[in-house]
Design goal:
This protein has a single domain, classed as MetI-like (MetI-like fold), CATH 1.10.3720. Strands 1-2 form a two-stranded antiparallel ribbon. The protein is 59% helix and 3% strand. It is mainly α. The radius of gyration is 31 Å and the shape is globular. α3 crosses α13.
Amino acid sequence: MQEPDRAPQSPAPDSPSYAAPSPALPRGLSPEGRGGTGHARAMDPGAAGHNATVPSESAALNPPRPTGERPRGSAGEGRATGTPGGEGGAPVAPRSERLVWSVVRDLFRFSASFRAGAVVLLVLLVLAALSIHAPYAPDARRVVPVDRPPSLQYLLGTTTLGQDVFWLTTYAIRNSLFIGTLAVIIGRSIAVLLGSFSGYVGGPVDRVLSAITDSFIVIPRLPLLILISFMVRGNLNLISLAILLGLLDWAFPSKRYRAQVLSLREEEFTNTATFAGMGTLKVILREHLPFLIPFLMADAVSGFLFAIGMEITLSILGLSDLGMPTIGTMIYWANYYQVLLTKRLWWIAAPLVSSVLLVVALYLLSTSLGTYLDPRTRLKNLGLRRAAADA
């Protein structure tokens, strides 16, 4: 008697022919998002024991990468997390740091104005570092003979207040650079976070943040600074002045970063990061921030110019901490004691020359960065680099 046909049973888990089912993937996400080969493998019903490669949806939409190229975001790329990557698991520098050094290297190689500006800025930084070894305190007075012209003993002369102009200038450069640095850090941090968040999230949040940014753009900053400085006159020290300048200098760069993120959020790597479960802040800082670094460097230079210019303006008007030496306060006290009428020009020459050198150095750096960001210049430099490599 013939037995009735039975439905085929799947092999037991401990059977050699048992094949574990592949995990389900979200719709639109191929195995490539998990570090696979970018192709979904399926069993060919007509050829038992052989696999047939079937292109996935993302592989059909995206062209295959050249042989040996790692997919974006792979472990070997060494992303900003600093995790091991590359051959043998050796640690690779974060992508943002490598990008900064690449930009600086290209600028030193192809831009004469950047080299000149960097050299002048380095000289000013050395002078600022010398203030650590100054024999006098920054607010010390009557420590040297008054109104002495430049000599071997007093390189830049002395003031009517009994201060050595050389050491006073080192303190002034250091404090002015401190104000500029702190103001740039505060202003550009606000600009990057608000601009990137506004451009990435979009919708009502983008409209509200854009309205706030536009309001800060139209505010006249110099009259507002003069008003606030007059209200807190005598209490505006270096830190509070830097914070005030930073809070008033973030709106213009924020619009620039928002425009960049609006285009970056449509890229494939942004969608991949979102599918991988990254939050909004992590996507902005880890995926988008490296692309903003060249623009951030250019904006930082312009922020230095704004902060130092406003500090000099407020100090000349007598609205800052006049007891702390800066480039602006040196000019204020020189004018207060009428050095132009008494022919003691060495007192006012030191801060004026320092301010001119600082502005020129920052201007050269800013123009070279602006030229570097021009796509035509970058293509030209890429062609020179390839020609050098072929040679």
